[in-house]
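Re: beginner question about structure tokens

> Can someone show what the tokenized structure looks like for a real chain? I only ever see the sequence side.

Sure, here's an example I had lying around. Input first:
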Amino acid sequence: MTMQKPGRNDPCYCGSGKKYKQCHLQADQQAEQERRAWAEAARYLRRDLLKFARDERFAEAFAQALPVYWNGLYDMETADEMSMPESFRFIDWFLFDYVPENGRRLIEVYHEERYAALSTYQQKVLDAWLNAPPGGGYELTGYEGQILHLRDILTGETFAVYEPAGHGNVEIGDVILARLVLVHDRLEFSTTAAYIPKSEVADLVEKLQAAKTADFAEHPDADHASFMRRYNHLLVHHALEQAEKNGRPPVARLNPNRADKAVRKAVRRMKSRLK
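And the corresponding structure tokens:
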């Protein structure tokens, strides 16, 4: 929880007996300026990475990646029907996890091409994000205000993650599909997260374990992170299958009552380049 700061002339919260302005005010103001600088750096990178991924030179890779992530429910002919959250989640995966034919992730290309033009704070955030783990599945085990307590469904590793909106509609036992990135001294979600209700988790772990066993047989030197980078789209496939099984449209374009009708101009430009 965020501590309520006293007024300038109120006693300092530390118990020194001094007025706040004569004690911790200056240090707190500096700490707040630092926090804002980190937050603004992360905000800028999120926006700039989205723009970078839509560059027309990546159109071919974009077209190849779409049906992989969405299990064929989106391709370049229907990509402009993605909702905003769907677009954010796909592009996040496309940036951080998808490996095009040239073998270089887009986050690596961005780091090489744009790093020198970034501010010091932006560079530090990008350095941390370059080595961010692949997107994964995390069971919500508890929460305290804006701090979510998560457990990796495969490794059992636990995390405390800052989310401004708190747990939202996600309940204890639900599985959040997200990437955890470091912003200064706390973990956050890299973009809009999705979740699988507890009642629909079903055999998700078994599917991933089977895929991991097969992957390790093919790549005996692989580690868990490299497996997840190659196969974490199976988390999305499971969520799509469960939505259909439970009578819900698996993606926005199949929802006859969708509210979001926006056309994604950047995707259309990519599509035109492929024709």
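Each token stands for a local structural state, so reading them left to right follows the chain. The mean pLDDT is 92.
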